[in-house]
């Protein structure tokens, strides 16, 4: 949304969603502004759109003011609401404009009791006034103790009810499946008395409550009058998810027998996680937010299961798939939570999908483990009986056959080894011959390319190139920048600020930094191409058409050929001609266009 843009209520669109990068906002780093300061006319210019801003840029110690314009439509047949998706934002103050020119302050946020919400929904909603025509200017103040995903939706009431009902329906399926799987494993535990089933049940319950904390469902149904529990509950349940997962993995993978190193490492990870949990619980709750290192326990469990599987322990095959799915889902959640990847519905619920698939796969893995172990036990028992029956009579015969086989195999290997040595020598000789042929071919190819390129360069100087030939010399922007860089600084660098002749490579490609004053200069500075907004290779060709002696191109044809607006092509051609005329070039050459000029530039 640009600086002058606004949203219009339109019955043809059920909803429109904007994130903070599309909204006008101001970041109050000092936290000293109030609403009266924001309304000052001189302050309004501070509201800007920052397309590059994302959740990762959100600073929890700053206050964010958002300006939001809405064009009302009294003829609309629908009721409309304003909704905030991120239910973890601590404080939201919405200043709603009234017809008498005043503003009404509406408070909402994660730090308020759930009963104070206008809509009994996990997100924050505000009903929009749409009785009279005009444009309303809304102001929104946001503070949050954790990184907030500021995303605002303007949607019809019909659309809100439809998606909210479907969302809660899916939540019911999700948490219902967790409850059924947890009950099933509880019953299995009482039947077989295997502690890993109890660990898995506790893991499922921790996952359920953690997911409810993430979704905002726990606040709505478990502690609606105690918002102070929100952050703490999320941290506690996330810890128990990791703790029970590690304990269950130790038992399922049988790490104490299969790998002592993995066994000890899992206990160390659990100990470190416990220390971080206690620090977050008693000193710094910000440690409860999802961080990059939160993927370490899941990754190591995943890695351990793969390692043990490769060692022949087939009962963990579905366990590997389950934790692979969970690891991918957790990675996506961490990247989205830190703002590295953009937000959408699938990414938001990626961890839910991962948990659900993981639970189903782990339940199947438990059953598969019992089946495989029983099958292996029965097979081993049968083999033992059979071996006892035939072992005594076949012992000498087998030993004799083995000796003969060893001799035959040894002779066969010696023969094949001699043959391989002979073949290897032949291959080495052929390889050397191929290398010599390739070196000659590379040299001839280089000469041919140099000849072709030199031919094109000569025709460029003689102003006889066609568009296709021109593109072979300057196929892309990098080629143009390299040409400008070589043309401009081939005889040395001179700082435009202090006149110094020594430089180093600049922070970006095709720039130089003065070693004395630090002035940074691009290859295009001082040339006719400085400030051009369209691709540089197209600018080169437009400039070339000014001096070209081949068939003259019309503006319409150039515009179509280069996929640029006719006005853009015409303006740039005129700019080139004006600069050449002002520099006194009656018969300009290609080098005259490349040279530096002091004529005032116009950004195209």
TrEMBL record:
Asked if the Swiss-Prot or TrEMBL record annotates the protein with the keyword ATP-binding, the reply is no
- Which parts of the chain span the membrane according to its record? 168-190, 197-223, 235-253, 265-284, 290-309, 316-340, 346-367
Q: Which domain of life is it from?
A: Bacteria
**Which InterPro entries did the record assign?**
7TMR_DISM_rcpt_extracell_dom1, 7TMR_DISM_rcpt_extracell_dom2
Ranges for the 7TM-DISM receptor extracellular domain? 22-154, 167-369
Whether Membrane counts among this entry's keywords is yes
Checking Gene3D superfamilies in the record gives: 2.60.40.2380
Q: Keywords of this protein's UniProt record, alphabetized?
A: Membrane, Transmembrane, Transmembrane helix
Protein name, entry field: 7TMR-DISM extracellular 2
């Amino acid at each position: 949304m640009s600086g002058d843009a606004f949203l219009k209520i339109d019955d043809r669109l059920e909803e429109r969603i904007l994130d903070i990068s599309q909204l006008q906002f101001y970041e109050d780093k000092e936290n000293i502004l109030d609403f009266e300061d924001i309304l000052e006319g001189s302050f309004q210019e501070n509201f800007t759109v920052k397309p590059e801003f994302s959740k990762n840029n959100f600073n929890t110690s700053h206050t964010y003011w958002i300006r939001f314009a809405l064009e009302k439509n009294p003829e609309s047949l629908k009721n409309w609401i304003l909704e905030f998706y991120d239910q973890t934002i601590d404080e939201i103050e919405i200043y709603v404009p009234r017809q008498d020119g005043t503003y009404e302050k509406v408070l909402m946020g994660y730090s308020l009791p759930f009963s104070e919400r206008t809509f009994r929904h996990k997100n924050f909603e505000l009903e929009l006034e749409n009785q009279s025509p005009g444009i309303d200017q809304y102001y929104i103040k946001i503070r949050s103790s954790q990184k907030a995903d500021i995303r605002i939706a303007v949607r019809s009431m019909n659309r809100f009810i439809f998606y909210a009902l479907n969302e809660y329906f899916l939540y019911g399926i999700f948490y219902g499946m967790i409850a059924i799987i947890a009950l099933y494993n509880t019953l299995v535990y009482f039947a077989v008395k295997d502690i890993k089933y109890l660990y898995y049940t506790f893991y499922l319950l921790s996952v359920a409550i953690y997911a409810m904390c993430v979704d905002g469902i726990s606040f709505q149904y478990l502690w609606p009058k105690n918002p102070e529990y929100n952050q703490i509950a999320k941290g506690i349940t996330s810890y128990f998810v990791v703790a029970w997962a590690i304990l269950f993995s130790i038992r399922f993978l049988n790490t104490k027998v299969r790998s002592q190193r993995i066994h000890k490492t899992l206990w160390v990870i659990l100990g470190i996680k416990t220390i971080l949990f206690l620090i977050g619980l008693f000193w710094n709750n910000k440690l409860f937010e999802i961080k990059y290192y939160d993927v370490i326990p899941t990754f190591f469990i995943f890695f351990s299961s793969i390692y043990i599987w490769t060692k022949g322990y087939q009962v963990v095959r579905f366990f590997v798939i389950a934790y692979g799915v969970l690891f991918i889902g957790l990675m996506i959640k961490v990247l989205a939570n830190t703002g590295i990847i953009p937000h959408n519905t699938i990414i938001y619920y990626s961890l839910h999908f991962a948990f659900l698939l993981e639970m189903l796969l782990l339940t199947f893995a438990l059953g598969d483990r019992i089946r495989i172990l029983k099958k292996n036990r029965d097979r081993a028992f049968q083999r033992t009986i059979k071996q006892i029956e035939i072992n005594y009579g076949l012992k000498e015969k087998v030993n004799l056959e083995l000796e003969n086989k060893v001799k035959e195999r040894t002779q066969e290997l010696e023969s094949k080894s001699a043959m391989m040595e002979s073949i290897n020598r032949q291959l080495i000789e052929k390889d050397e011959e191929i290398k010599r042929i390739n070196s000659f071919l590379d040299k001839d190819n280089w000469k041919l390319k140099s000849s072709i390129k030199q031919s094109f360069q000569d025709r460029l100087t003689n102003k006889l190139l066609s568009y296709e030939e021109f593109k072979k010399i300057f196929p892309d922007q990098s080629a143009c920048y390299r040409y400008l860089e070589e043309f401009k600084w081939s005889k040395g660098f001179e700082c435009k600020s202090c006149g110094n002749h020594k430089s180093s490579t600049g922070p970006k490609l095709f720039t130089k930094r003065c070693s004395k004053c630090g002035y940074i200069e691009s290859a295009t500075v001082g040339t006719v191409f400085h400030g051009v907004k369209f691709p540089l290779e197209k600018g080169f060709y437009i400039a070339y058409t000014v001096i070209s002696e081949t068939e003259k191109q019309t503006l319409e044809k150039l515009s179509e050929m280069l996929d640029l607006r006719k006005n853009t092509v015409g303006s740039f051609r005129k700019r080139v001609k004006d600069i050449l005329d002002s520099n006194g070039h009656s018969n300009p050459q290609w080098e005259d266009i490349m040279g530096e000029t002091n004529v005032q530039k116009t950004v195209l």
